[in-house]
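Deliverable D2.4 — example input (structure tokens):
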């Protein structure tokens, strides 16, 4: 029986975290230890890096995900190891996993095979407690809203117009819509409420976009929690909640440092989903890595239509980052699925299915080109891949001028990614003419139409009058310059998750919009996407257990 990811991770010969920090010249006294192999970096050490030149920023993204797997995080880790293997000073920056997918369907987010970050079990579970802090800070504001209404409501909050929901870091469809404060006078005034998963919280977005504690506190204070009867917005600062919330996040805001299986530095910090949030790790971790390493490999969640678009149009726009190269990850198996091949037949050689499915890859390649950043395609290698199938991908890419490299990091670690690493280094020497897809001055609905048309290839965006009027009201209130964060299924360019390949001419319906004034973007919810997922019929939790020696089994 082949080794599982957890088997491989458990055999890892981890080095003390101070040794990992020393590779990037982080002084031992700047590391706040969470055991021997995890640490947070003291913020004062980060502030002293302001004058250092920044390294090259490399984004790893992917084709539209399928059940066959693409291996974006695995490739991110493998490329970081590959760069170190060829003698470069490199670090990776990825997101912290959410417990929802870990116990649901997707599994963890620590890579796979011989391209993993460790300690894998800690990272996939409670790690350093960042998600706990984010959830508690978010729910402190929720509690203070209802408490304020209970004790006389001096701000005149209209309980029918409270927009701030509660959060928890678990998939639980039963909590999507609830009624709170039931049970009589002593429990407050009943109102409709609901839960989102923690990764969709505006606090998570603020946490990932904030550049220091002062910026974090200011952004939290700008959160609009609801409206008065005359529709005047009410902010978290008016409830005097923002300072206490920042206190809860003080330690969490420090970037986490761990290591890969090959003992190379990895920053894992923040964890917004890319289908319902902006899908990138924290700006503080990315900036810190860029000051310490010559090459920084980061990822953005799901396919390039979601993660990469938000990385460019939200994270890079807001933080002033200038990416130097993009790696688009694909697998032969996933391209077969996009070409119409059934999941249970993916082991059969089928170059024609790969050719058909390559339309999805080509669409992502074309989209990345619109941002002006040099790109390369990495084919995450499987043993069943045939020469004819690989040739089909290369032939499909030939007219684009974008190079393709096979990468075998899953089986071989850094050495299996050495060729990709060399190609990426060369790519970063080319000129990057990065520019966001749309201008700040564009009206909000036009920004939505631009993303839907240019990236999704939709023929039309529909929304009822309530949505359009809300967007116009926000423009009148001074929020028109904000970027848009699209919440949409990750499985398709369209809003229909079953529509694989490269559909065009479809309609994108915006059913709801939410203002994240503190984070600095407007969320547009398209189709049937949920901000609180549910567990599948057979959740991964059913197979996770402790064995007789107290070790975790079934985590992946």
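Example output (designed residues):
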């Amino acid at each position: 029986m082949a080794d599982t990811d957890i088997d491989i991770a458990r055999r890892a010969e981890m080095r003390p975290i101070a040794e990992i920090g020393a590779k990037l010249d982080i002084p031992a006294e700047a590391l706040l230890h969470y055991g021997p192999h995890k640490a947070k970096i003291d913020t004062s050490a980060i502030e002293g890096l302001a004058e250092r030149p920044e390294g090259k920023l490399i984004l790893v993204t992917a084709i539209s995900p399928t059940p066959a797997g693409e291996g974006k995080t695995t490739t991110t880790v493998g490329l970081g190891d590959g760069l170190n293997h060829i003698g470069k000073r490199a670090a990776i920056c990825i997101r912290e996993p959410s417990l929802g997918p870990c116990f649901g369907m997707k599994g963890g987010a620590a890579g796979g095979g011989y391209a993993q970050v460790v300690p894998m079990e800690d990272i996939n579970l409670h790690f350093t407690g960042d998600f706990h802090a984010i959830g508690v800070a978010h729910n402190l504001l929720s509690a203070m809203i209802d408490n304020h209404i209970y004790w006389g409501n001096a701000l005149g909050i209209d309980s029918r117009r409270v927009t701030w929901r509660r959060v928890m870091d678990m998939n639980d469809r039963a909590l999507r819509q609830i009624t709170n404060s039931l049970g009589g006078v002593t429990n407050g005034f009943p109102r409709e409420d609901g839960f989102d998963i923690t990764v969709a919280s505006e606090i998570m977005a603020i946490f990932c976009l904030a550049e220091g504690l002062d910026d974090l506190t200011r952004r939290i204070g700008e959160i609009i929690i609801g409206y008065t009867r005359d529709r005047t917005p009410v902010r978290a600062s008016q409830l005097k909640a923002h300072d206490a919330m920042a206190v809860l996040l003080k330690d969490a805001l420090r970037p986490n440092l761990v290591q890969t299986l090959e003992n190379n530095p990895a920053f894992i910090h923040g964890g917004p989903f890319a289908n319902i949030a902006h899908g990138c790790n924290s700006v503080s971790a990315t900036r810190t890595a860029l000051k310490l390493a010559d090459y920084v490999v980061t990822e953005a969640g799901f396919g390039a239509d979601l993660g990469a678009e938000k990385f460019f149009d939200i994270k890079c726009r807001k933080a002033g980052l200038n990416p130097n190269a993009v790696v688009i990850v694909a697998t032969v198996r996933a391209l077969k699925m996009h070409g119409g091949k059934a999941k249970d037949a993916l082991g059969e050689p089928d170059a024609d299915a790969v050719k058909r499915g390559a339309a999805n890859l080509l669409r992502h390649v074309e989209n990345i080109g619109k941002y002006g950043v040099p790109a390369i395609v990495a084919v995450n290698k499987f043993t069943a891949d045939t020469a004819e199938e690989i040739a089909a991908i290369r032939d499909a890419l030939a007219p684009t001028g974008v190079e393709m490299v096979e990468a075998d990091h899953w089986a071989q670690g850094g050495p299996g990614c050495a060729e990709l690493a060399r190609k990426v280094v060369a790519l970063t020497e080319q000129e990057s003419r990065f520019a966001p897809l749309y201008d700040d001055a564009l009206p909000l609905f036009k920004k939505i139409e631009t993303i839907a048309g240019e990236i999704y290839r939709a023929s039309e965006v529909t929304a009822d009058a309530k949505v359009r009027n809300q967007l116009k009201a926000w423009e009148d209130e001074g929020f028109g310059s904000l970027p848009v964060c699209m919440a949409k299924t990750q499985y398709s360019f369209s809003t229909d998750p079953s529509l694989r390949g490269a559909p065009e001419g479809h309609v994108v319906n915006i059913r709801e919009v939410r203002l994240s004034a503190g984070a600095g973007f407007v969320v547009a919810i398209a189709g049937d996407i949920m901000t609180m997922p549910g567990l599948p019929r057979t959740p991964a939790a059913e197979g996770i257990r402790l064995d007789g020696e107290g070790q975790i089994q079934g985590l992946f």
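The mean pLDDT is 95.
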